Amino acid sequence: MSAIEEKLEVVKKRIAAAKARSPYRQDVTLVAVTKFHPLEDMEEVLRLGVKEVGENRVQELEDKRSRLKMPVVWNLQGHLQKNKVKKAVAAADLIQSVDSVEIMEEIDKRAGQAGKVQDVLLEFNISGETSKYGLPPESLDEAAAKAGMLPHIRVKGLMCMAPMVEDVEMTRPVFRRAHEMWEVLKTYFPKGQVSVLSMGMTRDFETAIEEGATMVRVGTAIFGERNYANGKGETK
C-alpha cells in the first residue's frame, strides 16, 4: 500500500466517523485538493475511488486537464480574477469561489458565450477576516436574488473557509453560521438545486462535517506537505 493510499484510507475513516457524529447524517463528497501536486498523485487517488479534485489556479487546472486521461469532476476553488473567467468556464465543472457580484456576472457572460450553464458555489467570508475573499454574509439575499436572474449560472450551494486557529473548536461558529445561511440559500432556488455546502479542509474537516458540510476539500492529509519553494499558495 502506497503512502497516498494509506493516508486516503485514514481520511475516509475520519470522514465516516465525523458523519456519524453529525446530527444531519448527510452524505459527504471528498474533493482531493491536488494543487501543486504532480499529475501522478491525482491519477493514483482517482484509481482509488476519488471522484472529484480541486485546483486553485486556472492555469494548473488547464494543464492537468489537458494531460489527464481519466474521468474526474474538476473543482476550481481559488480566488478567480476577472481576466481568467473565460478559461475557468471552459475548464471547470464547478467553480466554488464566486466571491463577488462582478465575478458572478462575468461567469454568466462567458458561460453564455460558450453555450453553457456553469455550476457555481457562492463563497461567503463568514469569519470576516480581511485576508479572505468572499461575499459579506449580510449580502446573502442580494447575492442570491442576483444569481437567480442570471441564466447561464446555476447556484449549487455555498462555500466558506474558517480561520486558521490553533484550537479547531474556534471554527465551529463559522461552520454553524454557514449551515444556517445555506438553508436560507435553498429557498431562493428550485427544490434540490442547492445541495452543496463546501467547508472544511485538512485542519478542520471533521468539525465542518459535524456542523453539516456536504463537501470537504482535503489535500495535505492525503498527499502530504507541498513544496512552497516556488511561491506556491495556501494549504488546503
From TrEMBL:
A GO term for molecular function: pyridoxal phosphate binding
Domain of life: Bacteria
Positions bearing N6-(pyridoxal phosphate)lysine: K35
Cofactor(s), names only, from the UniProt record: pyridoxal 5'-phosphate
Domain Alanine racemase N-terminal: residue ranges: 11-226
Pfam family, one: Ala_racemase_N
Keyword check for RNA-binding: no
Coiled-coil parts of chain: none
Keywords attached to this entry: Pyridoxal phosphate
Keyword Nucleotidyltransferase: no
Listed CDD domains: PLPDE_III_YBL036c_like
Entry function: Pyridoxal 5'-phosphate (PLP)-binding protein, which is involved in PLP homeostasis.
Family: Belongs to the pyridoxal phosphate-binding protein YggS/PROSC family.
This protein's name: Pyridoxal phosphate homeostasis protein
Lineage, broadest ranks: Bacteria, Bacillati, Bacillota, Negativicutes, Veillonellales
